[in-house]
Amino acid sequence: MDFKDCVKFANETNVCYLATIDNGQPRVRAMGLFLADETGIYLQTATMKDLYRQLKANPKVEMCFFKPGEQAGAMMRVEGEIEFVDDKKLKVKAIEDRPFLKAFGLTPDSPELIIFRLAKGQAYFWTMKDNLKPKEKISFG
């Protein structure tokens, strides 16, 4: 397996659970995937959210994508350090793909609209069948 398999799984699943740290306390939340391609896994937030403050303080994250199925389904866990991406084309795409952002008053020119990606890290897949096997980590970036 390689990072292309990770991109495929992320796009098929479309929702991840994102873990951050807030003053030493783990925080996790479900997030809708913005984009996954060969350059990384992209999510979006806003500057007024606790998530943004947590990422600024500590960019290390773990994402868990879960696909229901037989015998507890399948998971992909991805870890690394995020980077903020200031790209007007991506912000335009975010506004077009996510109408709720526009309803919140955000535009592609809004400094409050934040795009971030995980471009370097490690990932591994899990199924019940592999439960007791050593993790086969996929490095990317």
UniProtKB/TrEMBL annotation:
Segments forming a coiled coil: none
Annotated ranges, domain Pyridoxamine 5'-phosphate oxidase N-terminal: 6-94
Superkingdom of origin organism: Archaea
Entry protein name: Predicted pyridoxamine 5'-phosphate oxidase family protein
InterPro entries linked: Pyridox_Oxase_N, Split_barrel_FMN-bd, Stress-Dev_Protein
